[in-house]
Design a protein that fits this description.
Layout (H helix, E strand, L loop, with lengths): L1 E2 L5 H11 L5 H11 L12 H10 E2 L4 E7 L6 E6 L5 E9 L2 E5 L3 E3 L14 E4 L2 H15 L3 E6 L9 H11 L12 E5 L3 H8 L6 E5 L5 H7 L2 H4 L2 H15 L3 E7 L7 H15 L4 E7 L13 H13 L4 E3 L13 H9 L1
Parallel strand pairs: 1-2, 6-9, 9-10, 10-11, 11-12, 12-13, 13-14
Antiparallel strand pairs: 3-4, 4-5, 5-6, 7-8
Helix pairs in contact: 1-2, 4-5, 6-9, 10-11
The structure holds S-adenosyl-L-homocysteine.
Length: about 350
């Protein structure tokens, strides 16, 4: 069976005209139905006989919402979505002044092993398909009735460990035939798979690359992120500089603040120093996030004073940094926590 949601427009057109022997304009009709989350049966401007033909030769499945939590504080919505094989992933809908953004998962589980993260605790189960990534956006848009204007690939999983599907997803979701979400409004977050960062720089995408840095030296980084033993900070920042030089897209660094681990003022100075060393006057931005406390990890978030001092020290040392507004704190909106809670109950 052909998974129609994983096809780009060219593949879909080839399928419609080749396999089904139908006229080309049908591809445009089907694409616009797909963007609305319609089933074959609901495609009312397509003849019944063609709909039967479609359902006999192709699958069209969207993730279904099995749990939905809405934050009483800021309206953030967290979905637990079920895939066709019964696995579940998380998808979050966030409201910003400039519009609605969705955070999607790229794998079921994760094999990166970051010590602070709930998504990686049970390891990786499998990669998501292109259609499962696209399906999260479509399902969230349909369920909420909101027009989604931005995507962050920051849910469960390591997008660069599912490279081909992640890149194809970005190309499809940003295409005018699909949801048409501009690549400037798409961020891909990675724990730092350096070889793939070089590959990504060659894809000619206009997305924002976010790097989960979380430490100011290799010792600290390796102690919380095993990936750092394979690709250290030197190789990572060199790849990030190359990414900027090739794409002209400003790099965004994520830095979670963990009490007593990586949040000292000296640490902030060391961080400013390495960023300057590799980036000199190239633009960059550091997003500071007090760590979300996950029961299994034992890490505590930094206190208010430590956070304030850390951000001030970075700024005083010439680094563009902000503390990220936390959304959905009351609904365990952090990566992997909802799926984890559900697995624990089973
Ligand atoms: N694997 C990718 C994308 C998914 S994680 C990556 O590592 O970037 C998305 C972001 O959430 C990453 O910056 C990750 O480090 C962060 N994160 C994971 N666990 C967290 C926690 N307990 N508190 C705050 N941020 C967390």
């Amino acid at each position: 069976m052909n998974d129609i949601l994983s096809m780009d427009y060219e593949e879909l057109t080839g399928f419609i005209t080749g396999t089904l022997g139908e006229p080309k304009y049908r591809a445009a009709q089907i694409s616009s139905w797909i963007a609305k989350g319609a089933s074959f049966d609901e495609m009312t401007n397509i003849s019944r006989s063609m709909r039967i033909k479609l359902s006999e030769s192709a699958t069209l499945e969207y993730p279904s919402v099995v749990q939905k939590l809405t934050s009483a504080i800021d309206g953030t919505v967290k979905y637990l979505m079920e895939l066709s094989d019964g696995n579940c992933v998380e998808c979050v809908l966030m409201e910003y002044e400039h519009g609605t953004t969705t955070c999607i998962s790229t794998q079921v589980g994760c094999r990166m092993g970051c010590r602070f993260c709930a998504s990686t605790i049970g390891g990786k189960v499998r990669d998501l398909t292109v259609s499962e990534m696209l399906g999260q956006v479509i399902t969230a848009q349909k369920d909420s009735g909101k027009r989604i204007g931005g995507i962050v690939m920051m849910g469960i999983g390591e997008p660069l460990d599912n490279y081909d599907n992640s890149v194809k997803f970005i190309k499809i979701v940003s295409s005018e035939h699909s949801l048409g979400i501009g690549q400037r409004h798409i961020s891909l977050s990675t724990s730092g798979l350096v070889d793939r960062i070089y590959d990504l720089a060659g894809e000619d995408l206009g997305i924002t690359l976010s790097i989960s840095l979380h430490a100011y030296n290799d010792e600290v980084r390796s102690s919380v992120m095993p990936v750092n033993k394979r690709w250290n900070i030197d190789s990572l920042l060199t790849a990030c500089r190359d990414y900027f030089d090739k794409t002209g897209r400003r790099i965004s660094f994520e830095y979670i603040l963990i009490s007593g681990k990586n949040d000292s003022a000296d640490g902030a100075r060391a961080l400013a120093q390495i960023l300057k060393k590799y980036f000199s006057d190239r633009p960059l931005h550091v997003n500071l996030i007090p760590v979300n406390e996950v029961a299994e990890t034992g890490f505590k978030k930094s206190g208010r004073n430590a956070v304030d001092l850390f951000v001030k020290t970075l700024i005083d040392n010439g680094v563009n940094a902000t503390v990220r507004r936390k959304l959905g704190e009351d609904i365990s909106a952090a990566c992997g926590q909802l799926r984890r809670n559900t697995l624990n109950k089973q």
